[in-house]
Design goal:
The protein is of the alpha/beta class and 248 residues long. Helices cover 33% and strands 16% of the residues. The strands form 2 sheets. The chain has a 5-stranded mixed β-sheet with strand order 3-2-1-4-5, with helices on both faces. Helix 4 runs parallel beside helix 6 and helix 5 packs across helix 6. The protein is elongated and about 95 Å long. The protein starts with 5 loop residues before the first strand and ends with a helix.
Length: 248
């Protein structure tokens, strides 16, 4: 039985660029792959950053409209984070979901530094960088000198990202999963069919791999005795008929 390779494609949204400057994660989205096939299992969580949301960050992801720094004109759109859990309450559930899977992240160093900052702050195990596969690095190696943003890769591979008006961790993870599979050579590189389609995983949340079972008995011959005799007579009329009878 072939071992199943489990990967988690993930993305985060934050209040800024550096956790050491007091910035925090506000959203995590993750998508499960088994043998490079989406299983339909996802993990998504909004997080209260316990700090005001800078307006520049709000312009990127639209989260935390009611705790903006220097609000100025009231903002009525976006997702409020006031009633969302802090990271310490959801960190263990996040680690349970990713398990020991390899993580697939675009610009992995950014997300990993934030994840590890939050995990360490919550007293939870941190994630080694070896756990991360960086699709930005993969894209730059495959297409040197070409734009390697997520939007640019969607254009290159013809992936629909029309719903991506703002950054969102789960949507970006779903788009990144498609980009990653294209970077790896195709969306079904091992040509293994899944009995559970994306969005309808098996009862345990995993995809059940389907392979044809060996036939219990050979199929019966469909040639009649007359057809077999006619074929034999034709072979006898050919030069060196023994050659044509090899393996018969």
């Amino acid at each position: 039985m072939l071992a199943r390779m489990r990967e988690i494609v993930l993305d985060t949204e934050t209040t800024g660029l550096e956790p050491t400057d007091g910035h925090r994660i506000v959203e995590i989205g993750a998508v499960e792959l088994l043998n490079h096939i989406p299983t339909g299992r996802t993990w998504h969580q909004y997080i209260n950053p316990e700090r005001p949301m800078p307006r520049e960050a709000f312009a990127v992801h639209g989260l935390g409209h009611d705790i903006l720094e220097a609000p100025g004109q009231p903002v009525t759109e976006g997702v409020s984070l006031r009633d969302k859990p802090v990271f310490g309450r959801i960190g263990a559930a996040f680690l349970d979901f990713i398990g020991q899977a390899q993580l697939v992240i675009h610009n992995a160093s950014f997300d990993m530094k934030f994840l590890n900052f939050e995990l360490q702050r919550a007293g939870l195990p941190v994630l080694p960088m070896t756990r991360a596969t960086d699709t930005l690095t993969l894209a730059r190696a495959r297409f040197p000198g070409s734009p390697a943003s997520l939007d640019a890769l969607c254009r290159r591979f013809g992936i629909d990202n029309s719903q991506r008006e703002r950054h969102g961790a789960l949507l970006d993870s779903e788009i990144l999963a498609e980009v990653y599979l294209e970077l790896m050579g195709g969306r079904q590189p091992d040509l293994v069919l899944a009995s559970a389609s994306p969005g309808r995983p098996g009862t345990d949340g995993a995809v059940v791999q389907w392979r044809p079972a060996p036939r219990p008995a050979p199929l019966q011959a469909r040639l009649t005795p007359e057809e077999i005799a006619a074929h034999s007579a034709l072979v006898d009329r050919l030069g060196k008929p023994a050659i044509w009878r090899k393996g018969g």
